[in-house]
Amino acid sequence: MKAILIYALFAYGICNMIIFASGPFGIFEKWRNFAHKISEGFGELFTCPMCLSTWVGLLFSALNIIFVKDIAFTPFNIIFGVGNYIPFVLIMDMGFTSGAVWLIYQFDEMMARIGKYEYEEDEEITADIEKG
Predict the structure, then answer these.
(1) Are 77 and 60 in contact (CB under 8 A)?
(2) Is residue 113 within 8 Å of residue 94, measured between CB atoms?
(3) The pTM is what?
(4) How far apart are CA 8 and CA 105, in angstroms?
(5) Which of 93, 92, 86 is nearest to 69 (CA)?
(6) In the chain, what is the greatest distance between 2 CA atoms, to the nearest angstrom?
(7) pLDDT in tens, the chain (132 residues)
(8) Residue-range domain boundaries for the chain
């Protein structure tokens, strides 16, 4: 269970960096701009947490199946074992990663909105106190 939670947080971190970070020497920003030049649809992939995380899930699952056969680190490779039910595992890891990243992203956005609203209310209260 801990490994699956760590996997979800890791996938969220990777997607968050690729979508929102500038990166060292602006590498992520340059990649997003290059992707948009290739195709508008391809560029959209690098601006959408749900879209990108689907393909990150496929990449991680394929890496687990092809290169790291001794240690299962994606959720459905952990459940079914590395190399078993490969097409099913790839699809399920894609879906799990997309859903987990989207859930964490929405939670993060909700927390940001809650913090913002509380901050705005504090400013209004301070302004009312200063008026008298």
Answers:
(1) no
(2) no
(3) 0.82
(4) 11
(5) 86
(6) 71
(7) 899 999 999 999 999 999 999 989 999 999 999 999 999 999 999 999 999 999 999 999 999 999 999 999 999 999 999 999 999 999 999 999 999 999 999 999 998 888 765 555 555 555 555 665
(8) 2-131
